[in-house]
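Can't paste images in this forum, so I'm doing it all in text. The chain is below; anyone willing to post the predicted C-alpha cells underneath?
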Amino acid sequence: MLLGLGAVVLAFALGFVAVGKPDMGLAALAALALVVAVLLRPVIGGLILVGAVPILSGMAPGVPVAHLRISELLIGVVGATVLISARRSDAVPWSSFEWLLLAYGAAWAIFGTVDAITLDQHLSITLWGTVFGQLQFFVIYRAVRTSLRTPSERRTAVAVLLVAATPVALLAVLQQLHVGPVVRFLTTVTGGLSGPTTVGAATRATGPFDNWAVLAGYLLPLLLVLCALTMSGQIGRHRRAAWIIGVVALTGFLLTEELSAILLLCIGTIVLAVQYGLGRRVLRFAGAAVVVGALVAAPFLATRLDQEFSSNAGSGRHAGVPQTLAYRWNVWTTQYVPAIEARPLGGYGAELPASIQWRYPESQYIAYLMEGGFPLLVLFGGLGLAMFKRSRDAARSKDPFDQALGRALAVTVVAMLVMNLIWPFLSNAGLPQVLWCLLAIAVPRPGHRGAVAAPSVAPATLVPAGGV
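Text version of the structure:
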C-alpha cells in the first residue's frame, strides 16, 4: 500500500516537473527506476557503483543534469538506497577503518564550512560540492561492502572494473589519434582540460577525464590488480581477454605520459612478481606488454622526456632535475608555504587566499594543509596507514583471490602516497573512486576468510561462468 501510494505521488510530481523542465523530469524518472532496481536487487547497486562511478567521475558538473556531477548523483542515489534498505541480517559491522574514513570526510567538510564562515567566503555550488565531496568515498566504501557479499559477486565486480577500463583507454588512444569527433566529445563532457598547461600538453591523453594525471590514477590500480590476478592464476580461461584489456589499458596509461605513475607501475609489477616467486618469467611477459604499449606511445613519451629534462639558457635549473618539479618547488616555497604559515591549524577551506597566484597546489599534502591545516594532514596520515594495513590484511588471506587483490592494493596505496607528493590524486576523480571500490571488495567476508579451494577444483576464474 505504501509503495503504491508513493508511486502515485511520485508520478504526479514527475509530471509537474517534466512540464517545466523536461530534462529534470527524465533525470528524476531514471533515478526512480534506479532506486526500484536497487531495492529489488542490491547487487545491482554495487555493480553500478563499481562499473559506472569511476568512469563517470571525470564528467563536468551539469552533464547531463544542471549543477550536479553525475557520478556524485549516482553515489547519493544508489549508495543511500543500498545503505538505508539493507536488512539487519545483511549489516556490515563497523570497524575502526570505517570510523576513520568517516572522520576524514567529516573533517574535510567541517574545516571547509568553518573557513567559509570565518573568512567570509561566498562559495559557489561547485565549491560547496568540494567541501562535502570527500564524504562520497565513505558512501562508496560502505555501499559496495554492503551490496556485494558473495565471492561470485565480488569477482564479478572486479571483472566489471577491468572491462570498464577498456573503453576508457580506447578513448584515450582515439583522442591521441584525433579520430573523428572524439576530441570534441571529450572536451564537451569533461568541460575541457583543467589545471596548468604547458607547451605540448595537448599531446597527453586525458580520456573521459579533465586531466592526464586523473587518467593515469584511474588506470594504475587496475593494471596492478590485473597483474596480481594473472600471477596468482585467477584469470583461468579468460587469459586472452585479460591480455587484450591489459595491452589496451597499458597503452592508454603510457599515453598520459605521467612519468611518476609509469615508474611506480614498473616498480609495483616487479614487487608483485617477487612476491609470487615468478621472477624472470613474469618480467619477460610484462616486458613484452611494455614493448607493445611503448611502440604506440613512443613518439609522445619522447617529446615528454625532452620537455622535462631539457634546460634553457639562464633558467638556473640543472638538466637532471625535471622542469615540473623545479617549478613546483618554486611555487610551494614562494606562495603556498607562507600562506600555510599564516593559518597552520585551520587552513583556508575550498577557496584559496588572494595571495596565491598559481591556483593549483600540485601536491595532495599541500592541498590538505590549505584545506584544513596540520590537523587534516595528520588525520589523512592515520587514514593512509589504515589503508595500507587493510590491504596487508587482505594480502595475508589464504584465499588466492583476496590475496591477489590485497597485494595489488598494498602496492597501489604505497604508490598513491608517493604520487601525492606531486599531484593531488586522492581528492580528484579517477584514482580514489577505483581505490575505495577495491578496498571494499578486497575485505574477506565472515566465513570466507582463510578459505582454501579444494585441490580437485580448477583455479578460480576472474568472472563467473557465462562471462561478463
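The radius of gyration is 23 Å. Residues 98-441 form one domain.
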